[in-house]
Fold this protein.
Amino acid sequence: MERILLAGKICSRNHSSDKDQKLVNVYSSNRQKDTLVISRPGIVLEDNVGSTLQGLFGFNDNLYEVVSGILKKNGSILSLAFDSWVISGWETFPNLPVRAMASQGGKLHVAVSNSETRYTTIDGTIFIAETPNFPVANLTRGISFGSNAFFFQNFNRSVYKWDGTSFTTTTTVAPWSVDDELFSVTVHNSKIYISAGVVSSSRPISIYSTEDGISFTTHTSNALSSDSKPIRIGIVLTSFGNSLYIASGRSVGPSESHNDVYSSTDNGVNWSEIQPNSAWGVCTEGSMWASSGKLFFLRGSLPAPILKDLWSSTDGVTWVQVISDIFGADFTGDLSFKTFNAAHNDTMFVGASTLNSQNRIVYANN
């Protein structure tokens, strides 16, 4: 639990009956505030009589600012351990379905469906279209690696490297098949790791790695070989500590969503089930990342309805819900794509789109 030192006191965040609210006792030099209420969506601040707070509040060596319902600490938007998420400016422009995101050169680069346009943002408030465009439309995944950003396309088995000035096609013969679905990419032990597979052709989950987007190593062609349903779509892959983790996904014959977690301690060669029945329940099309000594798992769709709850774990076995809805109550429907996440400037960005044409990117500080 994060603790904030205010006026000589350690004030812990305590859960109220509403899981989306956090209570913090605060004190300002000129006025006592018994309770500060931080709630979703965005951040709404109220004192003990229900008045919305605006302006500047100094607490010890920190300066807190409340502007239009957003809390800033020393100039940075304050989000407490991913339990408060801010809706970005994506819906103002361009309001399109997100396909891939990656950070490079102080900007978050976003690819969308059916377009080569490259959208960027510095802090999530404003998105602009920049040139040059992405090399192709419908990029599948993106990730930051070293000083570059890499973007992946399953349909043409290609990888593209963005160095801040131009794109380079590093390969057009990546090891996955043209009809494979690229589920997740992550950085682990100084390499990019990719998970891929396809249900329609009964190909299990393969794990690949690359250091340059040119040469690839196949670590396994059946990551979940010990499972009775090894052929799945919508699984998530991430690196945490010295291990790789795979979670959830949906199998067919009959269709079944999962809530199990597997880990690998040998760079994706062998996998062991560490949790067959996670507390977050069955789902697919989610996201998973590691931050501040924890794993975070965002549920996606079942495939219906959309699920938006975020969970954390220190070991991949025991999970605790962080927040019940990171996207907001007005974001409804079924996911038409996976949720996409990318770390950028000590902030985690998560994007999703629905079949009823809702598109949203939210962000929270790491």
Notes: The chain is about 0% helix and 50% strand. The longest strand covers residues 31-39. The CA atoms of residues 250 and 326 lie 22 Å apart.
